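Hi R.,

Here's the input for the shikimate-3-phosphate complex you asked about:
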Amino acid sequence: MGAVIRIEPAAGLTGNIVVPGDKSISHRSIMLAGLAKTPVLVKNFLFAQDCLSTVSCMQALGVKVEQKAGHELVVTGNGLRGLVEPDNILDAGNSGTTLRLLLGILAAQPFFSAFTGDASLRSRPMGRVIKPLADMGAVIAARRKGRLLPLSIAPAAGRLTGIDYHMPMASAQVKSAVLLAGMFADGTTTVTEPYASRDHTERMLETFGAGLEKNGTAVRLRGVAELSAPAAIEVPGDISSAAFWLVAASIIPGSKVTLSNVGINPTRTGILDVLGQMGADIQLTNERWSGREPVADITVKHARLQGVSIDGAIIPRLVDEIPVLAVAAMFAAGRTIISGAEELRVKETDRLKAVATEFTKLGGLITETKDGLLIDPSPNLRSAVCYSYHDHRIAMALAVAGAAAQGVEIEQPDCVAISYPGFYAQLNRFNG
Ligand SMILES: O=C(O)C1=C[C@@H](OP(=O)(O)O)[C@@H](O)[C@H](O)C1
Ligand SMILES: C=C(OP(=O)(O)O)C(=O)O
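And here is the predicted structure with shikimate-3-phosphate in place:
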């Protein structure tokens, strides 16, 4: 693709877009299927770099993964206690989800393993997962006093012990790591979050026969002897990928686009709620179930947007959509205030800083605060050379801003392959 991509202004978005499979659910489908005894067909798997990192780690742990036609995989594991010691360091690449969820699984294994990742992942906080796992009896050593990759996991002295863990932040990755370790532990494991984060792990554990109890934001799980796998899992389209089109169509005049087969799990639909509050014209049709995950087709038309204030429980429900929500806010009337979003500082890059710095280069009226963003209507957006920070969501948010205004040049654009390899090709179809 090259070191820089030029995004041209787009005409109205029309027609149908099929967004790729959900990244969170794709990761979990490979991990849980890989711990089952019978083969699982995974349909609409996301063939993107992050999920492929999970595939290669699971293969290194002795799980067979075969690619079938299209977006299908067959995963064949060796049962809940059938993983084998990897003969090299596992590489999670750019993927926080791969690393943190697998850490929960590997913390409970009777063998040694070690992890590294790319430069971004090596700077992201791992203490938040290592601490509760260590409380369960896991033996994990990591760089910078147990906080950063690379890290190693030694076999625990005996079986892990269930804990009652109150998480300091809402994080599906931390919650999932503890629950996955809890499957292998003696007794019960309870995790409580300050606000509800995505619950795909809980839903998929139930699909694989592991009983859970939920009470508010608390989830409780007992140790499991063996999983019982479904014959097939169908991964819904990713609402976090759909979000780029929801915003692009809302702000580009003449747009009317239908996004088919998008996951609408309520722990993920904050973007629909907030765009709706801003005055977006969004309709859901054909609501149905894909296993335990709800899906729908979503039609979005251009609309006049209003600024909005968001904080608190909504943030985990749209945590990855904030960069593109900031684009919607630049095109809205009135100020938008985003707070309680300090978690964005520990994603692939510091997303609050990246959004404020790069959108300012485009003429956006946007200021970073300690835990969020202040965004004013920005009528004089211009073209500029902007930087992705190698962060897929920053690159795609910049592309949407450029497409809706005077174009943009994005340095280091290839990172979209982390979650949405066909993104630029799809956007090019709408060149004005
Ligand atoms: O569990 C998951 O699949 C994810 C959880 C979120 O991270 P946190 O758990 O750090 O909030 C999210 O940002 C990430 O893209 C995917
Ligand atoms: C934060 C993200 O992913 P991860 O934490 O898995 O790297 C993301 O996809 O926006």
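One thing worth noting: The domain at 4-20+236-428 is CATH 3.65.10.10 (UDP-n-acetylglucosamine1-carboxyvinyl-transferase; Chain).

Cheers,
M.
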